[in-house]
Design goal:
This protein has about 525 residues and is an alpha/beta fold. The chain has four domains: about 280 residues, Aldolase class I (TIM Barrel, Alpha-Beta Barrel); about 30 residues, no CATH class; about 50 residues, no CATH class; about 110 residues, Double Stranded RNA Binding Domain, CATH 3.30.160. It has 16 helices and 16 strands. The strands form four sheets. The chain has an eight-stranded parallel β-barrel, surrounded by eight helices. A three-stranded antiparallel sheet has the order 11-12-13. Strands 14-15-16 form a three-stranded antiparallel sheet. The protein starts with a strand and ends in a 13-residue tail after the last helix. The site of 3-methyl-2-oxobutanoic acid has 10 residues, from strand 6.
């Protein structure tokens, strides 16, 4: 049976970034975009160009870099947004403008304060304007799952006539129920007279844990684009997870009438990178990309798998990129080997200085840790952007004394603008002492929102990767630090967050004026 193509539209860099605390710098977004391209996603929603200068620059940089995937920017159905999106996308090989307006009675009445006729008029105007800039225009009916069927058919027919090639029916609030949502999509496709001129898409939120089920049900009823994110990142409870959609379609090809173009062997690498950049750990029992996803604990299962793998496994771990994390480098590896591994991982530095810093860190790490894996390199590279400009603070050295029954003490030497500063503090625990000492120097007036530690690889010599989330005046940033010594990693992560807080481009999109 010949299969339809299912378009995979990744919105990790836009909706994914709307997870509180998941904001990313331009460089981080570029790294993720390159991995998404390697994964062969069809469309990368790179951001919401109008939402902040930082987001505009990120969309622009991604548009100018990515060659194989379509690059898309979100925009409300208003002139300024669409023009800004078009401007950011100018350098793209293949560009899409994604414009949206809400269509549910509750959104039209209370949020937009517009009549249904006005909403149709604005939607049509937006699509026509967007078509002046690009051939590929997507229109979304925000809160479609709570919108009226006849009204949706009316607006969809109008936007397709106006030039929209993709029509997206989001379950914005995660209210959809799989059977009902799928059937409603099928009915819309059946009732819209010009439905054959557009691809129907879904974008489901996970408030009831049904985002993947809703998306797949829609696919069974005719949707041919799914919007999703790596690790299911996204606003509130997140979006449908890319890896689950792709592997469901592939594993149950007997059921789904579609196939994707995704290179599934890149899935684990993409998941790790997104987790390491955002500081959102992947739960061990997460399907496909969780550490336990292919681990068999029970004796009966282990016995079965050893005898014949398919007794308990429906997918091959290596097909999604597990076990691909081979021993890559060691103490004796030189610059060329390091550079070539970076290239294979899709990591590129803007300058020689950044590469040199990364190589220096690699050498230090190789002295402490015999075996260096891809994950170690990714963690180490995440730190490289720290300490670039004069006013950023870097860690020179650290001493922590911790004794039972005594308050731990931390003493640090920090460097800013080529000057060393010595600071010390007591704390309730060693990490608390470190953060207090740094604050004595920085006096950032920020609030610590999250502190988390993850082992980058297995074993006791593994690097600890620490995430520190700080908030100041509504701006949220995540700092990362990795080291075989978790206390050093903690200090680095805190300093990374402080340095990012100083960077005005790193504005959370929800606070960027939209
Ligand atoms: O959830 C939603 O409705 C969205 C749209 C802007 C597509 O993110
Ligand atoms: Zn969304």
């Amino acid at each position: 049976m010949s299969k339809d193509r299912l378009i995979i539209f990744d919105t990790t860099l836009r909706d994914g970034e709307q997870s509180p605390g998941a904001s990313m710098t331009k460089e981080e977004k570029l790294r993720i975009a390159k991995v998404l391209e390697k994964l062969r996603v069809d469309v990368i929603e790179a951001g919401f160009a109008v939402s902040s200068p930082g987001d505009f620059e990120s969309v622009k940089a991604i548009a100018e870099t990515i060659k194989d995937s379509t690059v898309c920017s979100l925009s409300r159905a208003v002139h300024g947004d669409i023009e800004r999106a078009a401007e950011a996308l100018k350098g793209a090989n293949s560009a899409r403008i994604h414009t949206f307006i809400a269509t549910s009675p509750i959104h039209m009445e209370y949020k937009l304060q517009m009549s249904p006729d006005e909403v149709v008029e604005q939607a049509v105007g937006a699509v026509k304007l967007a078509r002046n800039f690009v051939d590929d225009v997507e229109f979304s009916l925000e809160d479609a799952s709570r919108s009226d069927h006849d009204f949706m058919c009316r607006i969809i027919e109008a936007v397709i006539d106006a030039g929209a090639g993709t029509v997206n029916l989001p379950d914005t609030v995660g209210y959809g129920e799989p059977y009902q949502y799928g059937v409603s999509i099928g009915k819309i496709i059946e009732n819209v007279v010009n439905a054959d001129k557009a691809v129907f898409s879904v974008h489901c939120h996970n408030d009831l844990g049904l985002a993947v089920a809703n998306s797949l049900s829609a696919v069974m009823h005719g949707a041919r684009q799914v919007e999703c994110t790596i690790n299911g990142l996204g606003e509130r409870a997140g979006n449908a997870s890319l890896e689950e959609i792709v592997m469901a379609v592939r594993t149950r090809h007997d059921v789904y009438p579609v196939e994707t173009d995704i290179d599934t062997t890149q899935i684990v690498a993409a998941s790790r990178l997104v987790s390491s950049i955002t500081g959102f750990p992947v739960q061990p029992n997460k399907a496909i990309v969780g550490a336990n996803a292919f681990a068999h604990e029970s004796g009966i299962h282990q016995d079965g798998v050893l005898k014949f793998r398919e007794t308990y496994e429906i997918m091959k771990a290596e097909d999604v990129g597990w076990n691909a994390n081979k021993l890559v480098l060691g103490k004796l590896s030189g610059r060329a080997a390091f550079a070539s591994r970076l290239e294979e991982l899709g990591i590129k530095f803007e300058s020689q200085l950044e590469f040199d810093q990364a190589f220096e860190r690699f050498k230090v790490l190789a002295d402490k840790k015999r075996e260096i894996y891809d994950e170690d390199i990714q963690a180490l590279v995440s730190e490289v952007q720290v300490g670039q400009s004069e006013d950023e603070v870097v860690l020179v050295d650290i001493e922590v004394v911790s004794k039972t029954g005594r308050h731990p003490r931390a003493a640090l030497t920090l460097r800013r603008a080529n000057q060393n500063h010595w600071v010390e503090s007591e704390g309730d625990g060693p990490v608390d002492a470190i953060f207090k000492a740094i604050e004595k120097f920085a006096d950032s007036q920020s609030e610590l929102k999250l502190y988390s530690v993850n082992a980058v690889t297995e074993g006791t010599e593994a690097q600890g990767e620490v995430t520190v989330r700080l908030e100041k005046l509504g701006r949220i940033v995540n700092g990362q630090g990795a080291d075989t010594d978790v206390l050093v990693a903690s200090a680095k992560a805190y300093l990374n967050a402080l340095n990012l807080l100083q960077n005005p481009d790193r504005m959370h999109p929800q606070l960027g004026g939209v």
